[in-house]
Design a protein that fits this description.
Elements: H1 5-16, E1 20-24, E2 30-34, H2 39-48, E3 56-64, E4 73-81, E5 86-94, E6 100-102, H3 111-122, E7 125-127
Parallel strand pairs: 2-5, 6-7
Antiparallel strand pairs: 1-2, 3-4, 4-5
Length: 172
């Protein structure tokens, strides 16, 4: 039996019902969401199920949605079934005021450094992580640089030449 997106969706909804939702297929990759408190249950099911076998964690990353009050931060898991060569994307959302998500390090050892990087840049607290500390930025930083909390550039600067940045005329 081929491991199709419909089959995977069916297995997930059979197991979790309405606990998994927002199914999409951008670029034919099955993408879905779950409540943040269920992330380990869903990941464990995807890992253990005889048919699914999503036992390779390709990546963990985050996205900041400043306009989504109460769900500003998304944690995105990219999983791969190496046997059938199928990839899926799984998302959970958390609020910026209490950005706690359970750590996947007990299930995927590769999650260790990925979660540290996600913490370092977005401030997501991976509960149960064995060594959650900054990995690329200095410990003294009191902010998370990938959050969209700052303007991209200072519009009051007078020391820049817009033409050098492709704005306001031709550079040639």
């Amino acid at each position: 039996m081929a491991l199709t997106n419909e089959f995977i969706k069916g297995k997930l909804t059979e197991k979790f019902g309405e606990g998994v939702y927002s199914f999409e297929e951008p670029y034919e990759m099955l993408t879905f969401e779950s409540h943040k408190d269920d992330n380990l249950k869903v990941l464990q099911f995807l890992f253990d199920d005889e048919d699914l076998k999503f036992q390779f964690l390709t990546d963990i990353c985050a996205v900041h949605y400043p306009d989504k009050k109460g769900s500003e931060l998304a944690v995105v898991y990219h999983l791969h079934n190496l046997v059938d060569n199928v990839r899926i994307r799984f998302k959970v959302f958390t609020g910026i005021e209490q950005p706690d998500v359970f750590s996947a390090t007990a299930l995927y050892q590769s999650a260790n450094w990925m979660e540290r990087e996600t913490y370092d840049f977005y401030g997501i607290n991976f509960v149960g992580h064995p060594n959650l500390k900054r990995i690329l930025n200095v410990d003294e930083m009191d902010y998370f640089p990938m959050r969209k909390e700052f303007p991209l550039e200072d519009q009051t600067r007078i020391d820049k030449d817009d033409e050098m940045f492709g704005r306001g005329g031709s550079i040639w």
